[in-house]
Design a protein that fits this description.
mainly alpha; 115 residues
Amino acid sequence: AVNTAYGAELVRLSIEGTNYISPENVLGLIGFPSFHTVMAMMSVVFLGHFKWLRPLLYGVNALMVPAIIIQGGHHLSDMIAGGLVFAIAFYMSGHFMRAIAASGEPAASRVPVKA
């Protein structure tokens, strides 16, 4: 899927840009970090609680590693950065959720309501 024509198109886009963005021309918008890696890690962490689903998750995500590089056009550094993005987001969301829970205030009262 990723060949020299793909690379040439990315170079052209970096030089000329695009006039509009549509589902047909979203080629190469995000290379670093790999959000394919973020999504794969999310599926393993959040669906991993279902023990019967683990073998399927691990199998599919083991296949994701070469697919992200070959089909997704990412470098190994993109995948490492994607892992770091997931780890930071996971840590920060847990921190915020613990802070909210510790406040004792009901969640509904923290959401601003527009009249």
